[in-house]
Amino acid sequence: MKKLSPPTSIPERPVFRGFEVDEPWLVPGYRRNLPHLRLEGATYFVTFRLADSIPEVVAQQWDLERHHWLQAHGVDPAWAELDPQRWSDAYFAISAGERRAFEHEQQRQFLVELDKCHGSCLLEKAHGIVSKSLVYFHGQRVWTGDYVVMPNHVHVLVQPFPGVQLEEWLYSVKRFTSTEMGKDAAINTHAIMRQRHLWQTESFDRIVRDVAELERTRQYIANNPAKLRPGTFALKQMEWLDEFAPRSTSGRSSTFQCRDGDSSTLRCRNDQR
């Protein structure tokens, strides 16, 4: 694993803290195609995926829909690169209710499409490698929470130590897994490995706002592989989170819900390949 920057302090034990993010434009972070808010001590729900897990035609349709929605609300998509401050001011001038509904629909589309198992689904054969990478720095640079390695994507709860950047940890995970998978003869002949672009560069991450959201997220992770064949995924529920939110023991269909009301419910299909 690539070495990470040393933490500025080492917590004695993991502690979950909720964060109110009612005014995200005031929270440190950055935006690429997605917003990435950063708060010290926060626990993040992170999703990262293989580069071929979303068909290009689907991604292009999402971009088109997003551009149309932004333009209809007075935001020129080009401002994101040409004038980021103007883009931010215009976007957050849109009512919070409309923004949240739009963002939640984007998240719903994203998670549903992932569970259709598009692409090579190489993680069916490499979930052990990914699992090893997710816990490698546990207790040294991050607290790793529950995770599931699906055939073409990964969901994980993670809390970086003070001074450790989430992006740096994710880069280390992706780099290590790419290298190790390249050594496996059963995997390295696949076209996506020859392209040397295994993982999608940008990942999805969201600060877990409160205990209720933590419980829902744990349930979502536990239920995500409910319809997959044994041996095609890896699921781990970490004990340290049990103190703050009970782990899920049900096998019901997956539901992920953020905290902003009925419009935020994301129902995800777990289609058997």
Number of strands: 9
The helix count comes to: 8
Give the CATH H-level superfamily of the domain at 37-53 and 121-267: Transposase IS200-like
Oligomer: single chain
Beta-strand residue fraction? 15-25%
According to CATH, the fold-level topology of the domain at 37-53 and 121-267 is Alpha-Beta Plaits
Taking all Cα atoms into account, the compactness measure Rg is 18 Å
CATH second-level architecture of the domain at 37-53 and 121-267? 2-Layer Sandwich
Quick one: biggest sheet? 5 strands, antiparallel
The arrangement of helices and strands along the chain is EEEHHHHHEEHHEHEEE
Cα separation of the termini: 32 Å
Poorly predicted regions: 251-273
Shape: globular
What's the arrangement of strands in the largest beta sheet? 6-3-5-4-7
Structural class: alpha+beta
The mean pLDDT is 85
The CATH first-level class of the domain at 37-53 and 121-267 comes to Alpha Beta
Q: What is the helix fraction of residues, given as a range?
A: 25-40%
